[in-house]
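Sample intake sheet
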Amino acid sequence: MTEPMTDAPVTEGDKVLAEEEKLTGIGDDLIRAVADAVQDKREDEVSTYIQSLSEIDCAELLEKFSEDDRRAILSAHADEIDPYTFFYLDPELRKNTLSVMPADKVARIVSELDSDDALDMVLNLDPDFQREVIRKLSYRTRIVLQEGLNFPEDSAGRLMQREFVAIPQFWTVGKTIDYLRAATEELPEDFFDIFVIDPGYHIVGEIPLNRLVRSKRSEKIESLKLDTTHPIPATMDQEEVAHIFRREELSSAPVVDDSGRLIGVITIDDIVDVIDEEAQEDILRLSGVEGGDLYRAFWSTTASRFRWLAVNLLTAIFASWIISFFDTTLDQLVALAILMPIVASMGGNAGTQALTVAVRALATRELSDANALRIIWKETAVGTLNGIAFAIITGIVAGLWFQNPMLGGVIGVAMVVNLFCAGLFGAGIPIVLHRMGSDPAVSSTVFLTTVTDVVGFFAFLGLAALLLI
């Protein structure tokens, strides 16, 4: 790989950093060097760079290019780029990139991937272009993709790959090993378990690969089977699948259809992607941001965020409406307007802490009906105790600041009330939304912000109107 030239001596520290960079991704100097080569149309140099990079590094390179540079390198060097480079691209960028390529080129890329990765590649394409790409694939690949598209979105059927190793239960270890050696071209690229099936393709057991290779050739396959198997229904949601993998510490699991027949396998690398995807999705939704915003078109990104901001505007107007009831109180004591945001802000932050804990616990199945009340009680107690602590601090500061001990007492009581509600609703809202079948990561924040703002303003200004005016 060609590196930018420098006259500075190379130190041991530089060598260590270079090795770390190889593990964590490509450096900005390399990205700028390739971009310069693309802009200057030094095509041989660009080819050298492409061939020296791994698929994931090449994907990172394309992601960090400008749109013009990316289009230039794809138009001149698309055939030199490994198909898995496109698979590793951000989904939104991958869709945009493939959509401007000819359908036959996209079909060539898809045909060289494993079945699960190929399905993932075509999933987000526009329907018309998707159909055009699938029509240009081989009959076998076309059937596999069409069957995969028929499964529900985010299901095990969409996640599984069709390449797996299945053998009859009457074979021996020696016959199985001979079969694996002879069928190298038909085997999946990576596999961890061998599935034992009956004549109807129903699973009767599974054998880890390490158990097979440690056994004598004469040993019967049936005697090596694990005590339990974990068949995954093809319609199961991918979050459920990830939970099973995490709980059972699986490397792979068979996928079965409605009649219990083996139709595919899910491996741990797919589950890592699911966990990463779900975690990112929840984090983004808590802020009202959609995945792929980094590469989405300007107007599309603006429109998607506008909807969320519009909802927040309505909740802010509602909080302002509550404040308007106390306009006379605010006119008579300006200090209230200065201190008012403190109560609401502290409640919002405390509520977000409780909400984050509850949303994560729901996602990882650590929170269920069995312990929901206990979690809500704990978060409420934590909020109340923090409210008391900060009530003392804030009350003393406000009393000294404005030379008004009663004002300090008012903000202190309001702080306790709001942090009590922050803990209660921060933990309670996600649980209620989850029971109603709604995604708590999507709408919890809006409800929580409304509660902490309204309670904070109402408690502070209401007590001030009663005790100070």
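Comment: The domain at 298-467 is CATH 1.10.357.20 (Tetracycline Repressor; domain 2). The chain has three domains: 12-154, 166-286, 298-467.
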